[in-house]
Amino acid sequence: MVPAPHASPCPVHVHNEWDPLEEIIVGVPDFAQVPSPGPDLFAIEYHEHHASPEQIPSGPYEPRVIEETREDLAILVETLEGLGVIVRRPERGDHRREFGTPEWRSNGEYNYCPRDVLLPVGDLIIETPMPLRSRLFEPYAYKQLLLEYFRGGARWISAPKPRLADGTWSLPGEGPALANDEPLFDAANVVRAGRDILYLVSCSGNRMGGEWLQRALGREYRVHLLEGVYEGTHLDTTITLLGPGKVLLNPARIRREELPPVLRGWDVLWAPEMIDTGTTWPYARASIWSGMNFFMVNPQLAIVNKDQLPLIRLLERHGIDTLRVPLRHCRTLSGGLHCVTLDIRRRGALESYR
């Protein structure tokens, strides 16, 4: 048998957001909850809706949300497996259990969003230093997979475990969203374009996190810090890379002149207004732009939330076929299709797309 172009024997092999997908992790909603109150959760997610951390509605999501999300993710898994993609899942854990450090106590959130936890770049997979206390031990749900990938030849490192001391977080208008005292970032602050890595400085990633990532990846890569673009959390509802030279942008958050140099010569698609899929809460944890949170199976095929018909029509007008799947509670659980997945292996080579 002749090997496929740029096939890799390493189980972890990802250079960008669009090469043909071979293996992926899909999250699980079991035991998902809003963690116990704290200054981190209040500053990053809840200050707009409550006057103090103590008012955060901590506790499990209603059973219907969990069951329907389980159903939706099963459809996603079936869709991916029908394309020949290997699908892996994290372990299910009881997030009600309390844990902590000598300085603070918390409990967990969920294993729904692997995109936030782990960052594959080439044959390296990184456990990222997430800025929420409730997520400090979330990588444990992926430990058996990480060991398997390591035994198969992948490189595996963990960023320095953050201290997450009081004073790490600031409310809007009171200083930087995250203090620059230690590296902090969610993996979803990062988008990969070959040798160029886009890194959003926001309330879920500080400058030191981007500097640490540049040094960890070395001179083979260029980490571009995007500052003043979006002060919310992740990059994947602002910039979606569709293929070499083609990018989808959120017109509410970024202008063409704010793009990093690597993207300035690319063809730009401007995202249409998203369809509001609603929430079971009095307010949504994720913005309406979570509808833009989708992923590419290859440069000609995207998996998109079935409710986002204007987006689907835009993609199809530009030569990108779509597979439409449900994700009814993405705004309640704060995670769209890109968030709830993590591409582990794509068939391709490291290139520069400048």
Structural features, described:
- The chain has about 350 residues and is of the alpha/beta class.
- It has one domain: 5-stranded Propeller (L-arginine/glycine Amidinotransferase, Chain A).
- Helix content is about 20%, strand content about 20%.
- The chain has seven helices and 19 strands.
- It has helices at about 40-45, 65-80, 115, 145-150, 205-215, 310-315, 330-335; strands at about 20-25, 35, 60, 85-90, 100, 105, 120, 125, 155-160, 190-195, 195-200, 220-225, 240-245, 245-250, 265-270, 295-300, 300-305, 320-325, 340-345.
- The strands form seven sheets. A three-stranded mixed β-sheet has the order 4-1-19, with helices on one face.
- The mean pLDDT is about 95.
TL;DR?
The protein has 354 residues and is an alpha/beta fold. Helices cover 18% and strands 22% of the residues.
Which helices and strands occur, and which strands form pairs?
Layout: E1 21-26, E2 33-34, H1 39-46, E3 59-60, H2 63-82, E4 86-88, E5 98-100, E6 105-107, H3 114-117, E7 118-121, E8 124-127, H4 143-151, E9 155-158, E10 190-193, E11 196-200, H5 207-217, E12 222-226, E13 239-243, E14 246-249, E15 267-270, E16 295-298, E17 301-305, H6 309-317, E18 321-325, H7 330-333, E19 341-346
